[in-house]
Design goal:
alpha/beta, ten-stranded mixed β-sheet, two-stranded antiparallel ribbon, 13 helices, about 40% helix, globular, Nucleotide-diphossugar_trans
């Protein structure tokens, strides 16, 4: 049996020629001809060479498909899947269907990974005997920001709850790209990305995966490079505003609460509810900031749905302002179920938000017809 670079046995795995194939690196590709070479090269440069690279061309209209085919013709361990444009979730699902590795790793085609990422994650998942490894990442835009947390092993329920309430853990769960997954768990539980969502597709997928984990390990190393681009640089960089996003946040909390509430302390449960309620307040103000995407009637109905939701009612009972600058009026109106005054208030607060923070002029709305999560 072959050995990996850490000197420990590689275990079962699959074979690609003489190479023991352990990790499948899945890269969805859509109109990223300017960046995809860098992404692929970073996957090829991994110090842990027991991997396959699966490129899923999601109906690109630029030269991305040709670039993918060029690499596949040069490197036998690269596979290319060409499909009609179905979105990043469907592309990742297609990659998982084709994957043969014991572990799954995701990489976006406009990002790159450090050369030791795969090796570090594989070593950690074996050393800790856990079902998920989460590492740090760096945001590279106009400013550079490292996102990381102290190395630690968590029981799954505790990690999910603390990731929802702890500022330094939460950003680590916003993407599936800074993680290493076990293929067996994905297959046994038929876990998929929900392609009906344009935004937030990672969250529900990871929640379902983590709920099947025994333990989760946070690795205090920055190994993933997440690039933020000017929208002129690429088509898929356009920021979407989706009215469904708020419904998705509530759906996410419903599922999270149903998984962990019976396994965590009352104090941590209250922290979760308060964090959720704070997110509801922020979401309402954000709706006011982008009120042009709603008719007056639609905005009123959405606000009514939110403030009457059982989990919002439950959270409103334990919510406390953590800062003097936090709104006192919005929580009061939610508790009193005063939808119309709340609509007027969030429109006013939304205008102030835009003045203070600006509005991304390139944002476009995405509507999902005949679908309601509330």
């Amino acid at each position: 049996m072959a050995s990996n670079s850490t000197g420990s046995p590689t275990g079962s795995g699959y074979r690609w020629g003489k190479i023991v194939l352990l990790v499948s690196i899945i890269i969805p590709v859509y109109n990223t001809e300017k960046f995809v070479r860098r992404s692929i090269e970073s996957a090829l440069a991994q110090t842990y060479s027991a991997n396959e690279i699966i490129l899923v061309n999601d109906g690109s209209t630029d030269r991305s498909p040709q670039i993918c085919d060029e690499y596949a013709s040069t490197y036998p361990r690269i596979t290319v899947i060409h499909q009609l444009n179905k979105g990043v979730s469907a592309a990742r699902n297609a990659g998982m269907d084709a994957a043969r590795g014991e572990f799954i790793q995701f990489l976006d085609s406009d990002d790159e990974i450090e050369s030791t990422m795969t090796e570090s994650l594989v070593h950690a998942i074996r050393e800790q005997d856990c079902d998920l490894v989460v590492c740090g990442y760096v945001n590279r835009g106009k400013t550079v920001q490292e996102i990381r947390a102290d190395s630690n092993v968590y029981e799954a329920s505790e990690f999910m709850a603390r990731a929802y309430t702890t500022p330094n853990l939460a950003p680590l769960t916003w993407s599936s790209c800074n993680m290493l997954f076990r293929s067996l768990i994905l297959r046994d539980h038929k876990l998929r990305f929900d392609s009906s969502f344009v935004m937030g597709e990672d969250g529900l997928f990871m929640l379902e995966y983590m709920s099947r984990c025994r333990s989760i390990y946070v690795l205090n190393r920055v190994l993933y490079n997440y690039y933020q681009y000017d929208p002129a640089d690429r088509v898929s960089a356009i920021t979407y505003f989706s009215p469904d996003l708020y419904s998705l946040r509530i759906k996410y909390f419903e599922r999270l609460y149903s998984i962990v509430s019976s396994e965590i302390s009352q104090d941590l449960e209250r922290q979760m509810l308060r964090s959720f309620f704070n997110l509801v307040i922020i979401s309402l103000v954000y709706m006011g900031a982008y009120a042009e995407f709603f008719t007056n009637r639609d905005l009123l109905q959405r606000v009514k749905s939110i403030i009457n939701h059982p989990y919002v009612r439950k959270a409103s009972k334990v919510y406390k302002r953590s800062r003097k600058t936090d709104s006192a009026i919005i929580p009061r109106l939610i508790r009193m179920r005063m939808a119309m005054p709340l609509v007027l208030l969030i429109r006013s607060r939304g205008k102030k938000f835009v003045v203070r923070n600006g509005k991304r002029q390139h944002i476009r709305s995405v509507y999902r017809e005949n679908r309601s999560l509330l």
